[in-house]
Amino acid sequence: MTDTSPTLRLEGVTRRYGRKVVLDGISHSFTKGLTLLTGPSGAGKSTLLRLIATAEKPTAGRLHWNGEPLPAARSALRRELGYAPQAVELPMELTAREFGLHMAALKGLRANEADAQFRLLLEGVGLAADANGRIATYSGGMRRRLIFAQALLGAPRLLALDEPTAELDSESRERIHALINRAAQSAIVIMTTHLSDGVAAAATAVLRVEAGALTPARAGLAA
């Protein structure tokens, strides 16, 4: 039987801003499962996620999605991508449901199916009762849960999550951890975190980003 599991390969990826080198020649293969990215603030974890999500381009090196190099495979990667950045400008005039339909349209999903799916996702993150509330009325924690929920639309095979549980209460963190663990059964899930205890046991790998390098952060894990 042919293996159809997703694969993401970074090959000599470098990202610099002016003279500052944030990532220096990183090579690593990601496969199905949960990978946690740790490391000090400002080390490049979010930069690495932006490169993976094609929100930025590497200064040097190349990414490969399912064996095909970017930029040729960029469209294919984006069709199967779910991305939840830390900082994003949400359309405050929309309701959560309207925002979900908007994101679904950008992903090329059918409206009826996407609406039903997003309702389930909002229920999963504890926002079902507020689905028709305007985002402007949401608290910071509610907005973070909404950003996470939209990333799961379309059952993506690559999830890039930038500290999705930061500043959330314990109940909300548990909800999101459960959804992350479920997604990792069939997708590549790459998640930055400073608080990995809640999901570390389920992680396939824990990697450290520091001084431009990507290295195993837990004994016995191969880079």
What is the strand and helix layout of this fold?
Layout: E1 7-17, E2 20-31, E3 33-38, H1 45-52, E4 60-65, E5 68-69, H2 74-79, E6 81-84, H3 96-106, H4 111-124, H5 140-151, E7 158-162, H6 170-183, E8 188-192, H7 197-200, E9 205-210, E10 213-216
Helix pairs in contact: 3-4, 4-5
Note the main attributes of this structure:
4-stranded antiparallel β-sheet; 6-stranded mixed β-sheet; Rossmann fold; disordered C terminus; globular; alpha/beta; 223 residues
Kindly describe this structure.
This protein is α/β, with parallel strands linked by helices. The chain has a domain at 1-80 and 159-165 and 190-223: Rossmann fold, CATH 3.40.50.300. It is built from seven helices and ten strands. The strands form two sheets. Strands 6-7-8-3-9-10 form a six-stranded mixed sheet, sandwiched between helices. Strands 2-1-4-5 form a four-stranded antiparallel sheet. A hairpin with a 2-residue loop joins strand 9 and strand 10. Helix 3 crosses helix 4 and helix 4 (111-124) crosses helix 5. It is globular and about 45 Å long. The model is unreliable at 219-223 (pLDDT under 50).
